[in-house]
Amino acid sequence: MNQTEKTALTDINKIEAFQTIVEKLTIGSELIHEEIVYILGCAIIFLKHYEQDNRYTSYAEFAYYIVLKYSTQYKDYVPLYDFSTNFGYYPVAKAILDDSLLSKESLEDCCIGIELERYRHEEYIETVHQFNSKRQLLADQTLEVSYIAPTSFGKSSVIVDYIKKYTGLNSKIGIIVPTKSLLMQTYRMIRNANLGKKIIIHDEMFQGQNSFIAIFTQERALRLLSKNNIHFNVLFIDEAHNILKDDPRSILLSRLLAKNRVLNPNQNVVYLSPLIEDAHSLKIAQEQSINQHKIPFNIKEPEIYEFCTDGNVTKYNRFVNEHYHVGQFRDMFVYINSTTAKKNFLYNYRPVSIELAAKELAKHLPEIGNSEAINRLIKILKQEVHEKFYAVDYLKHGVVYLHGKLPDLIKEYLESKFKDLVEIKYIIANSVILEGMNLPIDNLYILNTYSLGGKELTNLIGRVNRLNTIFSSSKNDLNKLLPTVHFVNSELFNRKDGKMAAKIGLLRSRIFKDVIRNPTLDTFDLDKLTKSERERKKLLYDQVREDETFLTKVPQTSFERVKQYLIESGISHFYEDLDIICQILDKRLENVKINPVWNTLDMLGKINYVFINNVDVKDAEFKRLQYPQARTYYDYHIIVNQKKALKENVNHMFNYFKKRIKDRNPLTFFGKTYGEVGRTEDPKEPKLYVNLGKKTDTEMINLAIIKLKMEDDFISFKLNKFIIMLYDYKLISLDDYNKYIYGTTNQYKIDLSKIGLSVSLISRLETDNQLQYLYFDDYNNLRSRPEFEVYKNSVNDFYRFEIERFLN
After folding, report:
1. Is the separation of the CB atoms in 438 and 464 below 8 Å?
2. What residues have CB less than 8 Å from 369, skipping those under 6 apart?
3. Close Cβ partners of 202 (under 8 Å, ≥ 6 residues apart)
4. Exposure string over 502-538, b if 16+ CB within 10 A, otherwise e
5. Under a CB-based contact definition with an 8 Å cutoff, are residues 667 and 688 in contact?
């Protein structure tokens, strides 16, 4: 919404009759006939103004809102049908015809119904904007293109359709996704599309193929390019708005694009995002041109409520920027209980706050009664995770919670149960759910708006009532075009007397300027950032640009080769002064093999000897490996614990906690997310530790579950970088490398691990004598023989789910 529209709509809302009717329409009060005629007439006027000047999209959106609210409230679908057929909202029009919602259908309507089938894509009808944008995208011969579409507008199908353009060619296609969860989801989508190409999801799965589809994170994609003489012909960048950020992974993403562009100046790149305003914000070089294909309209219009700490509830109309009083409730939980739907998503920011919200919500909900499905799920979680896992008790009230500190298997299993079981009505989560998760959500409660700007709020709200849940072959539900969103203020999850009205006001517009914080992008301008950002981050940005420039040079000395390696691998982030650590490592890497002590050290000892000993390490988590106890702990975790079942590891971690308390060493590292105290009493020291001596057994069990995920992430994203560097510099053997990276030296098991199977899953399959019944087909898909299917159907639901993530 531009300023002209804002001013005009504010002025129009000063007209008393208009103001009164808009308020009544917004809050659902009864309108008399004359008021209906008046407001529908206003909708026609707004639409005509848009037709005269297509820049004024908010007028068209307001017209649609008026018609949608009227038609769904009064069950008179003629205005909505007329609007939808003329404006190109064809899924709405088709649903009205399919469900016989018109009082009379003419021959013309029958013909329209037949014509709308032209816009069908597999199981659903597309809007005219969706249909045209996708068709133009697929026909576009430009090297770089973008597809900017609201959440749930078919970006996944764009990937498949675009790849089909290259099925007959020896092309190397990369789909770059931001998270492991999205990687596996995309892998399953590509595998099920049967595109006739080898699929690889790990850089070490590449074996010289001329043609493949790689589904990678940016880290794996960069490793593939660095270690092999290849490039991608086509790159899909999913959630492309991440490139605009200034975090290390965003820098890696822009580095991947720059590196592949050097290797292949004719690279095809497809940027996919719901949040980019101008595709040229994504450019890494001035001479780039990115054609933009954008769906300008969203057929969903959220109903936005705010619950205030005094119990008052208002409803917001974004077009006229008004909050209308609609009710009063005793507290937030009474409000949630009173406004609940079939499937509800409660958003919170920090993992500890998510767990607290789940605990408090469950307290305020009745038990769901005797449910065979829930009882079975609780029994499985007790068997496979632990009897004292918080989720066990919360499930009795229909509540699950998710966050990034839960082990991936638990998180994905609970996601699947939220989808499948009607008894689970509430899911509480943070941004884990924002990227790529296809969950059935009818209702959203936002408990905290920290870090949520206009774009992030829009993306979050887009998760409510995805189009496939509104339009389905079994039943269309047009009321879901008005998804309900509740901003819930409370002292529990934000400040006293806090209000979210300012954040709600951001939703008045659906157009948000791109804020470019990635200093490697062509359009980055330090002066456009806030003064505080400039002051805090100027040195960081200068260093990033210097590093990226350095990477483009051909190294002339061993020092420069080490420096490039540290930057490319991300190891540079572990140290205060990059040049000093490069000087030290340059000498150590050269001399370490001739030192007789080298071969007496185990893997963690070698890492300490080369990378930590007498070096200024700034990463506190990694720096702990200077202590022999920490090295012994991680060695055991990698070599022994990774092969155990999840519950065994939870119990082992719990017993380890108990031992620390007994040994009067209760302070345990949990990082910023869960840390409560510093290691010393210095008030300036960051709170990175938990005092286990002050925790109950139940609290320690749940901290053990969290700690397992933290340890896996520490090993995967930090420790393994150093093992890989030792191997790349030929300081450890291939067997040692495989033993610590994959948990085995058996090549078949390594191949299974590369496709995503955990060490513990492979160990269990081996114990049950099932590995012989698994094989890889010609396209690198994991397949099973009939004997394995019999076995799979004999195990419990949790274990079967773990198997079917990779094999279905």
Report:
1. no
2. none
3. 220, 754, 755
4. ebbebbbbbebebebbbbbbebbeeeebeeeeeeebe
5. no
What is the identity of the amino acid at 349?
Y
Comparing 434 with 728, which gets the higher pLDDT? 728
3-class SS string, 690-759? EEHHHCCHHHHHHHHHHHHHHHHHHHHHHHHHHHHHHHHCCCCCHHHHHHHHCCCCCHHHHHHHHCCCCH
CA–CA dist 523, 276 (Å, integer): 14
Could you give the CA distance from residue 414 to residue 409 in angstroms, rounded to a whole number? 9
d(CA 670, CA 654): 14
Checking if the pLDDT of 473 tops 80, the result is no
Query: Token match 């305003």: residue?
Result: 277
In this prediction the pTM is 0.93
Q: Give me the mean pLDDT over the 597-614 stretch.
A: 95
Above pLDDT 90, what percent of the chain? 74
Per residue, what are the HEC states of 82-141? Answer: HHHHHHCCHHHHHHHHHCCCCCCCCHHHHHHHHHHHHHEECCEECCHHHHHHHHHHHHCC
**In 397-485, where does DSSP find H-type helix?**
408-420, 454-461, 467-470
Question: Of 51-55, 101-105, 167-171, 264-268, where does mean pLDDT reach its minimum?
Answer: 167-171
The answer to whether the beta carbons of residues 140 and 291 sit under 8 Å apart is: yes
pLDDT tens column, 165-183? 876 678 999 999 988 878 8
Residue type, 675: G
DSSP per-residue string spanning 438-456? ----SEEEE---TT--HHH
CA distance 376 to 373: 5
Which tokens in the block code for residue 202? 């790990």
- Distance in angstroms (rounded) separating the CA atoms of residues 565 and 227: 12
Buried b (16+ CB within 10 A) or exposed e, 666-684: bbbbbbeebbeeeeeeeee
Token pair for residue 470? 């509104």
Q: pLDDT tens-digit profile of 270-324?
A: 999 988 999 999 999 999 999 999 998 899 999 999 999 999 999 999 999 999 9
Closest CA to 69 of 97, 30, 34: 30
Nearest-5° Cα angle at 343, 346 to 297: 80
Residues 175 and 214: their CA atoms lie apart, in Å, by 6
For residue 174 the two structure tokens come to 């990369």
